[in-house]
Design goal:
- By secondary structure, this protein is an alpha/beta fold.
- Helix content is about 45%, strand content about 10%.
- It contains 10 helices and 7 strands.
- A 7-stranded parallel β-sheet has the order 3-2-1-6-4-7-5.
- The longest helix has 20 residues.
Length: about 250
């Protein structure tokens, strides 16, 4: 997946990996960040040291994030320049804090950054997540709605979900498009002519019988043609089909 250049312009949140255990997950997190135009990674006390060869191998195309990632020994230092910090968590904490969905959190992050603030998002280690001592340093929590019977998310997965919501808040995401294969949508006149062609042919074939039901049957067919999203290529195929059936009938 190629990052959208528009997504990388302007300030972005810092994604802070706190005591990550596996280099592969750090590399996967880098890939997930860069997929959605985020390149500010911070790593706090990784278990296997820093830099990490396994992280580099897994990053595959997003190695620049690892090269430029800031390394810290303590959470306090990693979030020291942030004006607002989120902590991701998969379980409820006995701590009074706002709890936001990833969508709401990234909407809030966008508003803070737009006013010149700096935002950090903390992700905990794979085994048990962030400790309470980490969480109490955050302003708010991010809770990803997952299956309560299996709430554990891989580190890179949690990063990807949050990064995706950041992109949704900062770039236009088109909900649906139609890929046109060397054709255009058929115009109203083209569809009407197709309907005429079928109606005339089917009338000759005796479809519209009995006579008192002919009008309603024709209306149903006309409505079907106008309801169908037809391309010009589709129209030509339908014309060809009815012409070939007529030729076959004449030969018979």
């Amino acid at each position: 997946m190629t990052p959208d250049p528009a997504a990388t312009s302007g300030p972005t949140p810092a994604f802070i990996l706190v005591r990550p255990q596996m280099g592969e997950n750090i590399g996967g997190a880098a890939r997930a960040m860069w997929n959605f135009g985020l390149d500010r990674m911070r790593v706090v006390a990784p278990r296997d040291g820093w830099p990490n060869e396994n992280a580099v191998a897994m990053a595959s195309g997003a190695g620049r994030l690892l090269d430029e990632a800031a390394h810290f020994d303590r959470v306090q230092d990693a979030i020291g320049d942030c004006d607002y910090v989120f902590a991701t968590t998969a379980r409820m904490r006995d701590i009074t804090k706002p709890v936001m969905s990833p969508e709401r959190a990234m909407e809030h992050a966008r508003a803070i950054i737009a006013q010149g603030g700096k935002v950090g998002v903390m992700f905990g280690p794979e085994r048990a997540g962030l400790e309470n001592d980490d969480v109490i340093q955050a302003n708010a929590l991010i809770s990803i709605p997952v299956n309560p019977e299996f709430p554990s998310l891989n580190l890179a997965q949690a990063v990807l979900l949050t990064a995706y919501e950041w992109q949704r808040q900062t770039t236009q995401v088109i909900p649906e498009v139609v890929m046109m294969a060397n054709t255009d949508w058929a115009g109203l006149v083209e569809v009407q002519k197709l309907a005429d062609h079928y109606e005339e042919t089917l009338d000759t074939a005796g479809l519209f019988y009995p006579q008192d039901k002919a009008a309603s049957m024709k209306a149903v067919l006309r409505n079907m043609w106008s309801r169908m999203p037809l391309t010009r290529a589709d129209v030509q195929v339908f014309h060809g089909m009815i012409r070939q059936m007529k030729r076959w009938k004449e030969r018979g």
